[in-house]
Amino acid sequence: MRELSLNVMDIVQNSISAGANLITLSVCENCEEDSLVITIRDNGRGMTEEQVRRVTDPFYTTRTTRKVGLGVPLFKMEAEMTGGAFSIDSVPGKGTDVTARFVPSHVDMIPLGDINSTVKLLISCNPQIDFVFLRSLDSRSFTLDTRELREVLGKDVPLSDPEVVSWIGGFLEEQTEALNSPGSVEN
User: N or C: which end of the chain has fewer CB within 10 A?
Assistant: First the structure.
């Protein structure tokens, strides 16, 4: 995968397959520290210690549709290739946290890619699941929480409604633009 956003999509799909109904994705950049930290946290069924040890092996997967699972091993490799780190913490019955730390200035750093489109796609294709997306750049940040959207929209308007999907896309783009603009304030 040549964009981190595609790795994120794959890891979140694992969370969905594990029965999560709340998935938190944070993408935090710190220019001064030369770091990019991506964390995916879910409340799915979690993994045993043995599964956590084996999950970074590309020839181990719990899926029955194929014999290899490359998502987690590739995400780990991409982080470590930049001089970063990777960790998985999981508790059966409680959920899983996957954290990848990258060094953006490293020659082997691949682009983040279109993380906004990834988030929008995940929300619109999984309207029954709640997502919290936190994006930060140095001291500035924004959050999109689908639980708040559900409160405003009520029960009759699904997150997959085309107008809602369009609003989500516009909100993410607007907030990202403000995040990247000098002099913008924290939201």
Answer: C
Q: Which structural domain range is residue 82 located in?
A: 4-180
* Count of domains observed in the chain: 1
Phi, psi of 98 (to 5 degrees): -115, 125
- Residues 100, 98, 104, CA angle at the centre, nearest 5°? 15
The whole-angstrom separation of Cα 18 and Cα 105 is 34
Token couple for 66: 């194929």
Token output for 77: 């490799």
Strand order of the β-sheet with 35-42 is: 85-91, 95-102, 35-42, 22-30, 130-137, 140-145
Asked if residue 186 is part of any domain, the answer here is: no
Predicted confidence (pLDDT) per residue in 52-72, tens digit: 888 877 665 555 444 335 678
- What lies within 8 Å, CB to CB, of 83 at 6+ separation is 103, 106
Side-chain half-sphere exposure of 156, counting CA atoms within 13 A: 0
- Record the pTM: 0.90
Half-sphere exposure of 31 (CA within 13 A, CB side): 6
* Token output for 99: 């954290």
Q: What is the pLDDT of residues 107-142, one digit of tens each?
A: 999 999 999 999 999 999 999 999 999 999 999 999
